[in-house]
Write a structure and sequence with these properties.
The chain is mainly α. It is built from two helices and no strands. Helix 1 (about 1-25) packs antiparallel against helix 2 (about 25-50).
């Protein structure tokens, strides 16, 4: 599950970067960034609690 969250976070950051530099769609870009950060935080929190 942790690897899945990490992969999702990386994909969202890539989409955010593409959107930021290519399209500048506005709020959608920032939503993607927030979702990526939340995914990384969930991975860190769940990874530390299982050890």
């Amino acid at each position: 599950m942790g690897n899945l969250l990490y992969i999702v976070a990386v994909i969202l950051v890539l989409f955010w970067a593409i959107g930021f530099f290519a399209y500048s769609v506005g709020a959608v870009i920032h939503i993607l960034l927030v979702l990526a950060i939340v995914s990384v935080l969930l991975r860190v929190i769940s990874g530390n609690s299982t050890r």
